[in-house]
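User: Hello, can you help with two protein structures?

Assistant: Certainly.
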Amino acid sequence: MAEPRSDGDLAPTATPPADDPLAGSTTEVAPDTPLASNTESAAAGNAAGAVEDAVAVEIGILQDLLEKPPAEVAAWALEQSKALGDKKTEVESLPIFKVAQALKMAQAGEKEALLNSVMQGVGDLPVEQRAEALRLMTQMPAGVTAESLAASSSSSSGQEAASALSTNLARLAQEAAIKDMAPEELQQIAQVVEKNQGQLVQPLLDAVSELTPEERNGMTDALVSKGLVSEQNRSAVEDAIKPGGTADQFASVMKMVTWAYQHTWLVWALPVLEVALALSFLSSGCWVALLPWLAGDAALANGIAFSAYATKHVLKSAYQEFTDNPLNMANRVQAAMAEGTKFTDAVPGANVAMYLIAGMVGLIFTGAVLVLLGLYELNATLWGASCSSAIRLTAIITCFPIMVMRALLPVAAVFYGMQAARKVQELRGQASGAQPLLSEAEPNYGSVEETPPV
């Protein structure tokens, strides 16, 4: 070892032997040496690989969603939305966050396909899940801005779910780069919504009955606060969605119209039965007193069936418009009637359908009058001796229920006719002075900015 210097500094240590295996092991590598460059390149490569793996995972989740049936996609979206309303949820850990990241890189067609799948799948959800979707809608923010988030962060505990949902939705919107989407792409997405929104009316109306009166009032407040319903029409909306209100009635009307249109073929069941009975009685070898009435009623039944099918044919375009978007059709008819157009002119095919329905009602009343003849012939069949007791009993058992139905049909026709006339009068009254309950769609659909109320 070298002696210490006179100035107090230590002398340099001796150089280790050249054959020492640990020699130079603590020597630092200069930043510009090849070894340092290789280390940085390896780290950068590992980081790039991790990013590529993360992107692959995100795209994989999106592709899996696009391959699933719409009902499963809608159920998945509902569960993810419920998780977004939990303030303890870390949004970055949710699959929907990865989907938002993937949407930022996805093609416009993939975005439209995902939205289309979600909206189509809502109708296939159980009614309980559709009711959950309506409850969740009351928590949805009207818009997501920095100011609204700051306000929501200081809200009361009763608004914690809505605050968390607003914050997490803003995070998703930012991750999906919605603000950076081209106007043309936003317009295409808006067209997808407009195309499918009519199919949501019936499923959501069915779910309204699952909500409590308090939840229905909350839905009204949410629609008004989001600017979807004007403040002037708040009371009208409350009356519409209250228990037994217009929403419940409209849901039942849609069910009835859809069922009747899809099962029109059932009107041929009675004519076929009566013709078969008449032929069997003719081939029995004896005279059945009920045969004249049965033949006449079969002719009336065929006329009613023909009128029903003809009505279905002339109202085909109106039914298609009704099922595609019933609210749009109601608004269109209401606006046309406000301008003085008759209801029968506002609905395609309604003029011809009214004549067919009138003819059908006339046949129904004629059949009710002929029941008197049928009762007379039924008595003759009961006491007649020209046929065996088995044939007479068969004639009585099969024809008497038909007579009862014929006698009750005019009552049903008058009842439903009065109901239909009342609905038309209500629609005409609404058209005379009321504003549309729903405001027009905003041109900047898809933006996360606050929409001013109407």
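That covers the first. Now for the second protein you mentioned:
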Amino acid sequence: MDRREIENFIEKNGQALSEGREVKGEWLRLSQFLPFSRANRPGVRKVLTYARDCLSEHLPLQAEGYERTTEDLLNVWLGVAANCGTLQSVCADLVGMPDPETIRTYFKEQLCVEDLPDLEQRLNAALAAEIPPRVWRRAQEVAIDFHDRPYYGKTLQAEGLWVRGQARDGTTRFYRIATAYVMLKHLRVTLALRFVLPDEDTVTIVDDLRKRLKTLGIRVAELFLDKGFEGIAVMDYLTRQGQPALIACTIRGKTGGMRALCQGNKSYRTTYTFHGQNQTAFSCVIRGMPITDSGACRSLIPAHADH
């Protein structure tokens, strides 16, 4: 969408934009990236400015040139994050931006692989600075998830630091981040993040995030882990730590096993024994869930269980 198309869009939908009503979902994108637009709502611009100021305080990004500024780099960074897009798509939307390779060069020069631990620390500091005070008032139900971004390059794993995962979007290679967050009034508040590197196991990831939460002074009433964390090792770790948790478990096979537990019209509890490699076993209380309308079946496993 070039400037002429944007001006035509604003002229055609000016009244709706001035009233703050959605017009084909375009006003939000325009208000984020186009300061000359009538869609530039004060509230949205305030959020963008606040986020940019927060990042500039914690990220080591600089571009004090004639054509590019630090603000430009942060706008692109936030654009990619907010739209789950790419440098190409965001630079195409931002008026006056250079080609994405120029922006990529700035990022490569200032965000090096060797500085990944420092970057993780800076981002966690930025997240901590924005945690609402109510999070500390009582113990929280905290969720830990994996977030994968497809990687289509040819760099070796040891150099590119990508990890393998289940095939999705045409690849089994991903950049992976683990996050710990709470839900406050139906809004997600991220408390901490952890870059996942090759050969790191899930127990290490969960342990590091729990240590980060402890450092922040956040009490965890119960952990909710997605199916990427299922396994005897994580269940055993959480049990030894005395940490109540609920872990989503993948249902495999067509009959028997955990699928046989997904029956009836209501959830229920029973004891189930998981068998792992090297003749390891772990018994715990499992909550069976009925089959959903889509035919899917899922079980949730409280990890405060018996060996």
